[in-house]
Each structure stands twice: as C-alpha cells, then as structure tokens.
Structure to design on (238 residues):
C-alpha cells in the first residue's frame, strides 16, 4: 500500500490523459471539406478560437434525465449547439446537420485522440504501488468508448463524468460523487488536471489535494503544486 496518506489518485481526462490528434480545428475542417469549407492554417486557428469561446460560454454538460437514450439525446444537443456556435462565428454552410452527425461520431472513436506518451507507464506504476485510480471529467458518455479504445479502461477503478453524475467541475458534488465510489475521505485523495479552476480549485475546495498539470508551461503561483507532465507526479505523492 502507499506510504503516504493518499489512497486514491483522480485524473482529469482530455488535456491530462489524452488529447485530440492535431486540434479540434483540424478535425472539424477535415470533415467539413466535403461540404465546401476551405481549410487553411488561418481557418484552423479561427475554428480553434471559436471552439474555445463556445465552450467557455456554454452551460456545463449536466442534464436532468436518467434514461440512457434521453441522456444521449441531451448530450448530442449540447454538442450540436457548441459546433453550431463555432461555425456561426467562422462561417456557416449548407448540410450542417449531416456534417454534425459525422463529426460527433468521429470524436466518439479512439482514432480521434492520442494518449500523452508517459501516461500508460505512470498509471501502471501507480497501480503497482497500490493506489486506486479514477477519472473525474466534464465529459459525456462517449468517454467510455474512447477510454476503451485507447486501452486505458482497465487501469481505473472508477469513472465519474459530468453528464451521469449530474454535476460538473468545479462543483463540489462531482468530486464527492467520485470519493463516494472509493469510500474515502477528501484528504485521502488527490486530483490531477490541467485546468486551474475546474481541477485544482475545484478539488481543493472540497478538501482533496490538488495538482495542477501545466503541460503548456503557463506558470502558476509557487504555492500551487504544479507538474509539467505526469512523470513528475511521484514527487508530489511521496
């Protein structure tokens, strides 16, 4: 068992364990090409910025439904609004509804994502050291197909996603939901993620230890536990 008081290590998903291959703009424009949307580096940049703006302005992906089919419908509609907002900003085109169905399904496949290089070995090491592990993510139910396709599913004892938990980071409820699955107190868990507000502040507000994953080298206050990649996580846990 771990020598430290930490029993459970939670991770954010996108931006922490894996990322979109290329960028969201690359994928959006790849599928939009057959609808006559031109692809250029300038257009990729515009789509990426429009996506960031749309995500920032959107309500959290939580839905007051429990039936699986209704939940998936709500998730799809939430993402339809996001993608529609992106192309409303950069230029709408005919056939958008058909386009959306294609690109939505594309992001459900593991081929659209890539694992950060150090992730498999780090997770295996944590497992061998006796830590329980979980995911806490503001994701929809496509996550299960993605993590299965990336062959990471077997490494996690729990998966907590906002659309099922009924709350989203940085809300305390989603962190408590994850803790309850492991039957541990907040001080017995650490959460690692790449968003300062949603991951670090959300976790520490509930009483978990928080670790900010600064893959882009943004820099943070010295009082915040910060790592550049998951290889450095052992420095925080021991």
């Amino acid at each position: 068992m771990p020598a430290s008081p930490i029993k459970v290590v939670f991770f954010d998903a996108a931006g922490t364990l894996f990322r979109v291959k290329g960028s969201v703009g690359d994928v959006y424009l790849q599928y939009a090409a057959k609808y006559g949307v031109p692809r250029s580096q300038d257009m990729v940049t515009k789509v990426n910025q429009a996506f960031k703006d749309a995500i920032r302005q959107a309500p959290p992906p939580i839905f007051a439904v429990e039936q699986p089919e209704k939940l998936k419908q709500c998730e799809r509609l939430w993402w339809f609004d996001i993608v529609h907002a992106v192309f409303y900003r950069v230029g709408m085109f005919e056939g958008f509804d058909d386009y959306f169905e294609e690109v939505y399904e594309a992001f459900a496949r593991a081929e659209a994502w890539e694992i950060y290089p150090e992730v498999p070995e780090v997770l295996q090491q944590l497992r061998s050291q006796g830590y329980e592990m979980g995911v806490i993510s503001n994701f929809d139910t496509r996550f299960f197909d993605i993590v299965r396709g990336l062959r990471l599913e077997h490494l996690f004892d729990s998966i907590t996603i906002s659309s099922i938990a009924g709350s989203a980071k940085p809300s305390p409820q989603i962190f408590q939901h994850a803790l309850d699955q492991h039957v541990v107190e907040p001080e017995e868990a650490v959460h690692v993620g790449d968003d300062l507000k949603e991951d670090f502040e959300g976790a520490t507000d509930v009483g978990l230890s928080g670790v900010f994953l600064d893959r882009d080298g943004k820099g943070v206050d010295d009082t915040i536990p910060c790592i550049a990649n998951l290889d450095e996580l052992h420095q925080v846990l021991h």
